[in-house]
Each structure stands twice: as structure tokens, then as C-alpha cells.
Amino acid sequence: MDTPAPVAQGASSRAHVSRPLLHRGDQVAYLVTLLFAAIIILITALLFFKLYSDAAATRQKFGWHFLTGTTWDPVALDFGALPFIYGTLVTSALSLIIGVPLGIGAAIFLAELAPLGLSDALAFIIELLAAVPSVIYGLLAIFTLVPFVRDDVSPVLKGTLGFLPIFQGPAYGVSLLAAGCILAIMILPFIISISREVLLAVPREQREASLALGATRWETAWHVVMPYAKTGVIGSVFLALARALGETMAVTMVIGNDPKINFSLFAPGYSIAAAVANEFSEATSNMHVAALIELGFVLFVITIIVNAVARMLILAMGRKSSAA
Question: Does pTM surpass 0.90?
């Protein structure tokens, strides 16, 4: 009858001995993960400092005029980034105009209306699309999207909306419109996947209360779930915008690479990422290299701001869901 006592004492002793070890293990894990997190912040800070310092030549020569200048002449060493900023913003905006309605609609279907098995299968396929290399999208765009935009989309837009300046002029195929279309296809997986997760995070009680009052599933999804999740959905759009801003290969292959500000969407353009990718290996002067680095610095700052805003919106959505 007395034999269990030593066992209990032994277990108690082991628990007493292991508790400080576990505590030390937590401390080690805390320090290691803190070190990893600090390395990420350090890398970001080094990137910012390196781009800023290496662009000193153009910052000192052109100042703020670098952002507003429209001439890009490496021979005369005259550099203005406005055509590239314009091309980047226009193609990114086009991608959002095309991609956001499609992405949010697909996310609502997958999260609210589709059967569970079909939703999971489609979500898996959509996530696979996000892993396709951008050069593959670029090749597909050259052989399919560019002829489609030139021969089918452009005549229709000219016939119906040709009174607008953005739909006038000759259609070459490679254009701001083609770049915006391929970007829209590339950001769809990000919008759909993140929006679907945000919609699924809405508390079930919200849906049950709406359905109990007699609303249909679509009315519940549109009037109850979407308003509750709108902050997170907007965050997914911002993340997709960051993806579009930094896309290089696919845009380079279809945008036309013309450093001019053309108001027609059928005309060629240029983006910041495409300019850096095309010209950096061919730059022969220090000023040209510094101009390309400052282009990269501008893109870096824009992307950081967009990502920061997106993260804050998603965090706000998470706090709202937890408080409900």
C-alpha cells in the first residue's frame, strides 16, 4: 500500500526539476526568435540605407526634380522618373480595377455560397496559381493576351468608349492595357485567398442571426458578412497592389518599354521595375546607375507604405473579430 508514494514523489520531483528547464527553454526560444525578427528589421533597414546612399549622386544633382522630370536620357545624363512612376501607377490601378471585382466575387462564392468540398478544392488550385513564376505569365501574355487586346478588346473599347482620351490612338498590343490585364490575372490569387480567409473569420453568430431574420444566403453574405469583413478585404487589396507595384518580368514583356507619358491605354509605357531590370546591366556611367538605384528606392518606399497600410487594416480586422 505504501509503494505508490515513491512513484508520486518521483513524478513530483521530475516535475519540479523539469519546470526550470522548460522555463529556460522558453527563454532560449524567445531570444532566438527575437534575434530572427531583429535580423528581418535589420535587413530592411540596410536595404533602405543602401538604396538611399547609393542614389546620392542623382539626389544631389536633381533633387525633387527627379520625381517630376519627364526626360530619361542616359547619354545626356538627364534623368526624370515621372514616366516610370506614371506607368507603374497606371498599370497597378488597371490591375485593381479589373482584378478586385473578380477577386472579391470569387472569394464570396468560395467562403459563403460554394459547398465545402468544392470551396477547398478551388482554394487549393487558386493558391497554386500564386506560385506560378511571373515569366510564365509573361510568355502566356505575349502569345495570347497581347493579340487578344490588339485584335478584339481595343476595337470594342474604341467603338464604345472611344470618346475618352484613354481609349484613343493606335493599338499595338504591347501597351499599358496589356500590362494591366496580366497584372490583374497575377494578383487574383492573392485577393481571393486572403479575402476568403477573412470572410471565413467572421463569427458564425453574425450569419445565424441574419438567416434567422429571414435573409437569404446572398443577402447575408453581402449585407452582413461583407460589411463586417470589409477592413480585411481592403487589406487583401492593398497586398495585391503591393504585388502589382513590384512585378517585373511579366510587365517588362508586354508593356512596350517606352519611357514616355502616354494617356492612351493602347500606347506603350514603362514601369519602375521594368526600367531597373532592363537598364541596370547596361548602365555605363555612375550617374545612370545612381538614377536606376533611386528608381528602386522610390519603388521600395511606395511598396513599404502600401504593405504597412495593408497590415494595419488586417490587424484592425483581427481585433474586431476577437472582440465580437
Answer: no
What percent of the chain is predicted at pLDDT more than 90? 25
Q: What is the 3-state secondary structure (H, E, C) of the chain?
A: CCCHHHHHHHHHHHHHHHHHHHHHHHHHHHHHHHHHHHHHHHHHHHHHHHHHHHCHHHHHHHCCHHHHCCCEECCCCEECCHHHHHHHHHHHHHHHHHHHHHHHHHHHHHHHHCCHHHHHHHHHHHHHHCCCCHHHHHHHHHHHHHHHHHHHHHHHHHHHHCCCHHHCCCCCCCCHHHHHHHHHHHHHHHHHHHHHHHHHCCCHHHHHHHHHCCCCHHHHHHHHHHHHHHHHHHHHHHHHHHHHHHCCHHHHHHCECCCCCCCCCCCCECCHHHHHHHHHHHCCCHHHHHHHHHHHHHHHHHHHHHHHHHHHHHHHHHHHHHHC
pLDDT for 22: 56
193-237 pLDDT, tens digit each: 988 888 888 888 888 888 888 888 888 888 888 888 888 888 888
Q: Are 200 and 120 in contact (CB under 8 A)?
A: no
pLDDT (average), residues 180-189: 92
**Is residue 162 predicted with pLDDT exceeding 50?**
yes
CA distances to 98, 123, 184, 269 from 188, rounded to whole Å, are: 9, 12, 6, 23
